[in-house]
Amino acid sequence: MTFRNLRKSARTAAVTLAAAMAATAFTVPAQASPITGHGATGHEATRRAIDAEVRAGIPGITAQVRDARGVWRATSGVGDRTSGAPRGENDRYRVGSITKTFVATVLLQLEAEGRLDLDDTVEHHLPGLVRGNGNDGNRITVRHLLSHTSGLFDYLADEEYVATYLRGEGYLKHRYDTLPPLKHVKVALSHPPLFTPGKEFSYSNTNYILAGLILEKAGKRSYEAQVRERIIKPLGLRATTNPGNSIRIPQPSSRAYSKLFDAQPDRIDDVTEMNGSQGWADGDIISTNGDLNRFYRALMHGRLLPPQQLKAMKTTGPSTGRAGMEYGLGLMKIRTSCGTTLWGHGGGMVGSTSLAVTTEDGRHQLAYNRNGDWNTGAPNAIAEAEFCPPKAQRSH
């Protein structure tokens, strides 16, 4: 997910952040509950924006802000539509494409250690893998993968894959299947490239499947182990995990909901359980608002990357058709309506949409999660409210 239209996300069928959708009758409707928050002064507009999302139909939202006033937490709505239990301030959730910043960080660490170069070709690290239908790993570099300029087709835009794993009865039937990374690559390579590598931008989850495979080859350890040893443990991200093949989200957590059936737009399914391998290096991490804020703050402060690599990560190009957003290497640069520049990433999974952003100095951060993956018509509202509040609120 990006700071843009949720229907343009990259963790679903037509690369939609408003992912899949499903079914079942629940005894308790998704209704707004009072927003709770600590240190609320200065965040009134953010509270209203969160509550408005719930009134518009999202089951629940959990958010955390870190700024000069301290830490502010807020929840609204329900975490369980059946029991009516509220969302929790410390809920764990599937962060979706926010995972990409973790992957890019590890690859850039490996570059700093001399284990790879951003201009190495995919063929160099994964010989013979990217071939066929005009795809050529000799022409695609690690930099192209991390910046989404490879031209590789997004496997999540493949119609058969979408029907089987992301929508309707297909999702309900296959949600527990283990899907190895090479299956995703095979789906992508059944399509010709979208353009010559390096010539354009097109967000493709296939890029980060390949980045994860290169990470394992160059680092000589699993993707999960390297993320854990290089980022999670050093930063003390105790609520952040890679699920592997597990179908569950560790507690505390809320249920996740989706609308899987286009022909039944009012039908909402509980999609909390799904095999974590269906995301892998392009979107499998489970975390919390607090851990994501800590991660991006550490990243911006240079605690994870040397200056040269952090500069490379923040070197952006325009993202076609996405006003106010540019993409670096696993990192988005977002311009708000009031001119504030933010760095971070959005993420969408079936049943979950999230955003984690920070000012460049790390002094003002926002992370939030919606436990519903559909579009309410105002995807930018929460971040806009936090970073572009009314003048009366800014004076506090």
UniProtKB/TrEMBL annotation:
One of its GO terms (molecular function) is carboxypeptidase activity. Transmembrane segments: none annotated. Residues 1-32 form the signal peptide. Keywords: Carboxypeptidase, Hydrolase, Protease, Signal. InterPro entries: AmpC-like, Beta-lactam-related, Beta-lactam/transpept-like. Residues 48-360 form the Beta-lactamase-related domain. This is D-alanyl-D-alanine carboxypeptidase.
